[in-house]
Amino acid sequence: MPETTQFSGNGSDNNQDTTLKANFVLQNRYKIMGVLGGGGMGTVDQARDLNFTDVRRLVAIKEMHTLATDGALRASMLKTFRREANILAALSHPAIVKIYDYFDLNDRAYLVMEYVNGSDVELLISKTKELPPEKILEWAIDLCDVLEYLHSQNPPIVFRDMKPSNVMIDSLGKVRLIDFGIAKTFVSGVKHTMIGTEGYSAPEQYKGDVTPQSDIYSLGATLHHILTRKDPRLEPPFSFHERPIQDYNPNVHPGMVTIIEKALSFKVEDRFASCAEMKAALEALRYRPTLTNAPVPVTNGGRPVSTPTASVGVSNGAAASSAAPVAVPKAATEFFDEATGTSGEVQPRWTFKTEDEIRCSPTAIRDLAFVGSYDSNVWALNLDTGQQVWKYATKAGIASSPVIDDTNRMVMFGSEDNTFYAVDYRSGRLNWSHTTKDRVRGTARVEHGHVFFGSDDGKVYALGAANGRVLWSYDTTAPVRGRPFVTNELVIFGSETGEVFAVTLSGARKWSYRTRRGVISSPYVDTKEGICYIGSTDGFMYALDAANGYNSWRFRTNGPIISSPVESKGLLYFSSADGFVYAINAQSAREKWKFQTEKPVVASPLVHKDLVYIGGTDHYFYCLSADTGKERWKFKTNGPITSTACIMGEVILVGSMDHVVYALPLVS
Amino acid sequence: MNLFRRLFSQEKDGDPAMPPEITKVEKATDPLTMPPTTATLNVMFGDGATRPLPEDALIAFMGNGHLTFGQATDIGMVRTNNQDSAYSFFSTSRSVDERPDFGLFLVADGMGGHSDGEKASSLTARTVATTVISTIFMPVLIGNTENQPPISEALTAAIEKANAEVIKHVPDGGTTLTSAVIIGDLAYIAHVGDSRIYLINKDSIEQLTRDHSLVQRLIELDQLTPAEAADHPNKNMLYRALGQNEAVEIDTLTRRLPPKSKLLLCCDGLWNQVDDREMLDITKQTPNPQEACNKLIALANKRGGVDNVTVILLQMPG
User: Fold this and answer.
1) Most buried in the list A80, A293, A411, B220, measured by CB within 10 Å?
2) Measured between beta carbons, which residues in chain B are less than 8 angstroms from residue A585?
3) Residues B145, A206: C-beta atoms closer than 8 Å
4) Would you call A451 exposed, middle or buried from its count of C-beta atoms within 10 A (0-12, 13-18, 19+)?
């Protein structure tokens, strides 16, 4: 398909057919020294002006050469070239190269300009490891100044090709703009054909609309490239917001980041109204120390780039920790203030203090809540008042979350006394129990009239839910602490051996998959797609084909994953001991957002009505937007939270290692 | 002969309701007129003997068990060469090992002057095919998937290898690459460029891949409407393709293919000429996937055939 074209990797032309040879003297005056480069539609040569015999005065000569034989095309190109000459000749600004001469000769056109001894910024980027932020700020201010000068001409001139290779830094460290090959006087409302360098051009330029604010976008793109060193020509168009500057360069002043993001807004009206306005914002950063939380002097400072996706990377994290150096105003908490009309503090409806740490998740049915505590008891509480209804004492701590079997009116849980208990949930009387050879820390799953749970003795047990009769047990040879997932065909669970096992409902091995470290995370199976998601302490989240165990993808985090994933609307939510809560696309494993807490996260997220609820070992219980990962509110307990919350009616139950279970109001 | 007899007997013992698998039925276009009754099945296989199957039995059991596919490509009405490449590979087996069906299907649309486009796409097709067969298919067939990388990663690695090969051997060429590895009924898709994969269900068609084209980006950013995009001057400008850069970002996704669903792989030569609705209608009305591919190409050519056209259509059993 020859019609399909590629974005060229570099804008420069092929200069092999240079017509001016070294030592050639043009017009008895300019002695050619060599080629400087190519740009726009011509070659640029360095030459010496022989009129100045005593000094070595160097000039740059731009020659327009064309291989076009078509007369009309030639004429059009010559016209463009002459226009560049005329534009330049009429301008006077320290950052714009001076023009000395223009002439036609043998069907060719020549433009004699001031020779700038220096290096273009593209070359500077490739030759250095890092450029000093103060310098970049000064360049940005100077570029705003020269663009403002161009835009304030009558009619305004739009440079249209702002990019690192068109910016020279001269021997004095000053910015010089070169290549006015495509600069155009701006006539409002007239659509021009699209020219410009892909990667730096503003979205509206592809529709043929060019305004002075297109230059602001390209300046933003240029600064983004300089600071991140990520060449936008190698990235999807208009994807700057997917590469937050501070991810690549933490030394950049947050105010600078905000200014560049504003310049890179997709919508013209969201950018700075003029280069003068952008310049003023940049100048205000001059004497500030880097890395401060001071508000940024931009009219709507802190406002992220104007798309829903864009807001993820920008605002995320700012509210998560006060240490994050992104200057987002109190937007993150405004939502909550509005929602509750209070000071923003979540007040629990009730709390209940057990006698030891709460390590497992609470559960509830109708008006009863159940909480297992390391004090060896399972407590049944009134869901409305938090008053104790009964408690069931085992002989050791409880780390396995109670689960409900509504058919048999039982609550079931394991204990570190090696026994698994099934207790009548109304009365708290024991129905049956089953003793294994080691502690039972795994949470059970009730399905198909049976209960499935793992034990530290290495086995997964399938017992009749009504009577505890053993259907089968499957030996993995190492502790099973996750909660089995039961589909219509398979029971899937992980083991400390590092393997994920799938056994049939009759207990026969169907497949296994080996991760590199122990698996504590519980599998989550998207039964519609037939994909099993499970985390491993090797740091990866895995997607396995539930039918055969083939590994579809894995997603790396920087810490062990103990948390169990949950899928909702195509996104997979989980946390990692690296301190982040993640949301990734379940089909492509692409990260949608991540939310940073202050300590490792081992709890599993709960997704309810477009909100994600999760507790951290930093003592906080967070409520995040499921779509963006933005914090809606958080609630502080007095200990690490390691278990999943439970929502029943209008209440969220959260257990903390501070011994307390909190019943928080469900704020919609 | 004894071996055949044994196999037949075993089928009968194992699951009397299931007839032995019939691997290939050519006349798939014929309507399914005569579903077998239990009585006829008993008559046919009651004694476990090997004998030629009656003609209507062939028809009755067709499509039982695994996917069928068609593949077609055409130079179009305007071009002087076909720069597209297509590759299809499918393996199915029946044994106590219970290996899942395996398939690899890909479409590559080459670009570049002279013959660089077709060189880039054929080199890509060849490299991806050989790599996928050795790194994904062979371990599945051998049954040694324990220490293998995830399928998406292995598929990505194969495409990265193809990218390096194109840069090395066809420096002035480039190509799109849209590929699907099928294991059982799960599709592992990897994609670069503007060739597409559609998932077709009973009455819906869904584009699974996202074009890496400038206009698509503009549409995603609400800067362009799909209608405006249709006649945009830079309609075919890609921002990502194989053979352009040492580092290439490859989109991957996995999708379960529901029973009776279809997967359509095609290059822009098809989707520029034939809209989604027409693809849905033609594939719905044409049960034989090869015939459906031919019809799609004929329609693209009827509309002018300005570009090469390549189509692969997979049909899942139901």
Assistant:
1) A411
2) 253
3) no
4) buried
Q: Could you tell me if A529 lies within 8 Å of chain B, comparing CB atoms?
A: yes
**Which of A9, A307, A587 comes nearest B221 by C-beta?**
A307
Q: Is the pLDDT of residue A322 over 70?
A: no
Q: Where are the alpha helices (DSSP H) in A447-494?
A: none
CA distance B231 to A241: 28
Contact call for residues A376 and A415 (beta carbons, < 8 A): yes
Six token digits for residue A631: 């914090």
Which of residues A322 and B60 earns the better pLDDT score? B60
As a whole number of angstroms, the distance between CA A167 and CA A136 comes to 12
Helix (H, G, I), strand (E, B) or coil at A606: strand
**pLDDT category, B19, cuts 50, 70, 90?**
very low
Write down the ipTM of this complex.
0.72
Distance in angstroms (rounded) separating the CA atoms of residues A269 and A400: 56
pLDDT tens, A77-97? 777 777 777 877 888 899 988
Catalytically active residues of A are 161
| pLDDT tens-digit series, residues A112-141 | 888 888 888 998 998 888 888 889 999 999
A453-462, A482-491, B138-147: least confidently modelled range: B138-147
State the Cα–Cα distance between residues A655 and A95, nearest whole angstrom.
64
Nearest to B20 by CA among A290, A659, A532, B50: B50
The beta strand positions in B133-228, using DSSP E, are 174-175, 177-183, 186-192, 196-200, 205-207
C-alpha to C-alpha distance for B273 and B295, rounded to whole angstroms: 13
A418: left (phi over 0), alpha (psi -120 to 50) or beta: left
Asked if A606 contacts A614 with a C-beta cutoff of 8 angstroms, the reply is yes
Q: CB B217 to CB A4 under 8 A?
A: no
CB A651 within 8 A of CB A643: no
Chains A and B form CB pairs within 8 A to the count of 140
Point out the least confidently predicted range of A217-231, B12-26, B173-187. B12-26
Which chain B residue's Cα is nearest to A309? B221
- CA torsion B149-B150-B151-B153 (nearest 10°) is -80
Which one-letter amino acid corresponds to residue A640?
P
- What's the number of CA atoms in the CB half-sphere (13 Å) around residue B55? 3
Tokens at residue A25, please?
A: 């003297």
Inter-residue contact B188 to B254 (CB < 8 Å): yes
Query: Which pLDDT belongs to residue A612?
Result: 96
Cross-strand bridge partners of residue A461: A453, A473
Asked if B267 and B202 touch (Cβ cutoff 8 Å), the reply is no
Interface contact B150-A542, CB threshold 8 A: yes
What distance in Å separates residue B47's CA from the closest CA in chain A? 32
DSSP letter (8 states) at residue B137: I
- pLDDT tens-place string over residues B237-259: 788 899 988 888 899 999 999 99
Residues of B in contact with A516 (CB under 8 A): none
Please state, for a pLDDT cut of 70, what percent of chain A lies above it. 83
Partners of residue B255 in chain A, C-beta under 8 Å: 529, 587
Total residue length of chain B: 318
